[in-house]
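Reviewers of the previous submission asked for a worked example of the structure-prediction workflow described in the proposal, so we include one complete record here. The input consisted solely of the amino acid sequence. No template or homolog information was supplied to the procedure at any stage.
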Amino acid sequence: MSIQRFEQRLESFVEGLFTRLFRSSVKPVEIGRRIIREMDMGVTLGVSGQTLAPNQYTISLSPDDYSKLETVRESLVRELSETLRKHAVEENYLFLGTLVIHIESKSEYRNGLFQIVSDFTENKNGLPPGAVVINGGERILLKESNVILGRAEDAFIQIHDPEASRNHAEIRLTGRNFIISDLGSTNGTIVNGNRISEHILHDYDTITIGKTSLRFEAS
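From that input alone, the workflow returned the following structure tokens.
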């Protein structure tokens, strides 16, 4: 299911650009299939019995294939990351640290060949992986154990919405869980359609502040 959605999104956002660029070389969908397989083959059991998946991936391409990706590399990395996150949710995989995908050029590779290597890496600050995506666009990593969301200029996640309070909500780390709390805001904090005072965040929870939609990602 993950790779099918990946193919559909590729078709919609590049409208055939990848097909023209990779007519006789590496196809992005091949990279998508391989990186999902790399994740599945790399899983291991954590000390508490949870299934851990690699969170760092390096994709090595020939110099020519790498150069052909120049104009769409960021979009491809974004789509691959989204595909891996959703696959991890479907399979109940957890990440030790933030999901990172790096694409590099290697002179010893000929056109059409590529390699994907994965690894497990914890965040340097010791925090579990977590991020908030605003309106489906900007992705903000939760680099602190306590962050404020709101209209205030000094808010860690600034919400440019007249219906948001200056200090609207707080996300704090308790153990390995990120918990969101409403800070007595005027219009309330909504998670997955329900008004909350406090809520333990799970992967792909939707947070609504005013007319602004945010998505929590545990990676």
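Residues 130-218 form a domain with the Tumour Suppressor Smad4 fold (CATH 2.60.200.20). We consider this example representative of the routine output the project will generate in years two and three.
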